[in-house]
C-alpha cells in the first residue's frame, strides 16, 4: 500500500520552528489532527507521537483512509528545558471567533488546523495524580466538551482501555470540560472538531505512559476511520 507522507515546518524561520507530518491514505476520508508536546515536560506524549510517526514512515502502521496531520513535538523550546513552557502555550489559542492566538507558535499551529479543518483534534498531554482516586486531578483521563459529539466515543474508548488495565486505581476516567485558550477547546469551538485531550499520569512509569498514549491514539484513529 502506497502512503503519501509529507513533512512541513511550523513557525518556519523563527526560533519556534518544529516539524509536522501529513499522512494521506489511498482513499478519501476524515481528517484527524494530532498534537503532542504542547507542554515541554510531558515527555511520554512526545515519545509516543514520535514513535507513531516512525512506524508510519517504516510501513509498520498504515493510514487506510483519510488524512492524518500530526505535530509530534509542538513546543521544542520548552521540551529542551523539560518545562511546561513560559508562557503556557495551552492558554494562548483563540477562545472565540473574534479572538486571536497570543503566541507565534499557537498562531501557526491553529492556522494549520484551520487549513485542514480536521473532523477530529487529538491533543496528547500528561498530568499529576490518578483521576480515578481524585476527581480534582487529570492524570489518566480523557477530556472533551460535554456538548461534543465525541462524548459517547470517549466513554467507549475509556471502557475498552480499562479492560486491559488490571489495577483499578490507574484506570482512565472521562472529564467533560472546556478550557478557554487551549488548542482542544479552540478546535471544538471554532472548527467544530471532535476535540479530545489525552492525559496519562506522571505517577506511572514512562514506558507504560507511552504505551497508553499510543494505544489510545490508535483507538481514536480507528473510530475516525483512518485505521483498521
TrEMBL record:
Cofactor(s) recorded in Swiss-Prot or TrEMBL: Zn(2+)
Keyword Hydrolase carried by entry: yes
Keyword terms: Hydrolase, Metal-binding, Zinc
Domain Succinylglutamate desuccinylase/Aspartoacylase catalytic: 29-128
Name of protein: Succinylglutamate desuccinylase/aspartoacylase family protein
Amino acid at each position: 500500500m502506497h502512503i503519501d507522507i509529507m513533512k512541513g515546518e511550523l513557525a518556519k524561520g523563527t526560533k519556534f520552528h518544529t516539524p509536522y507530518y501529513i499522512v494521506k491514505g489511498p482513499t478519501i476520508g476524515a481528517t484527524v489532527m494530532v498534537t503532542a508536546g504542547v507542554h515541554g515536560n510531558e515527555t511520554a506524549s512526545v515519545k509516543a507521537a514520535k514513535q507513531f510517526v516512525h512506524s508510519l514512515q517504516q510501513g509498520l502502521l498504515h493510514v487506510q483512509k483519510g488524512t492524518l496531520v500530526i505535530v509530534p513535538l509542538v513546543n521544542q523550546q520548552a521540551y529542551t528545558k523539560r518545562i511546561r513552557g513560559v508562557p503556557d502555550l495551552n492558554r494562548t489559542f483563540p477562545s472565540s471567533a473574534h479572538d486571536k492566538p497570543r503566541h507565534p507558535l499557537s498562531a501557526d499551529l491553529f492556522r494549520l488546523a484551520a487549513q485542514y479543518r480536521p473532523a477530529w483534534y487529538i491533543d496528547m498531554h500528561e498530568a499529576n495524580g490518578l483521576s480515578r482516586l481524585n476527581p480534582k486531578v487529570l492524570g489518566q483521563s480523557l477530556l472533551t466538551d460535554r456538548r461534543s459529539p465525541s462524548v459517547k466515543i470517549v466513554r467507549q474508548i475509556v471502557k475498552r482501555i480499562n479492560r486491559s488495565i488490571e489495577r483499578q486505581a490507574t484506570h482512565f476516567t472521562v472529564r467533560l470540560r472546556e478550557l478557554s485558550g487551549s488548542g482542544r477547546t479552540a478546535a471544538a469551538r471554532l472548527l467544530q472538531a471532535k476535540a479530545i485531550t489525552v492525559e496519562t499520569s506522571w505517577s506511572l512509569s514512562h514506558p507504560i505512559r507511552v504505551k497508553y498514549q499510543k494505544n489510545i491514539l490508535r483507538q481514536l484513529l480507528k473510530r475516525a476511520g483512518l485505521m483498521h
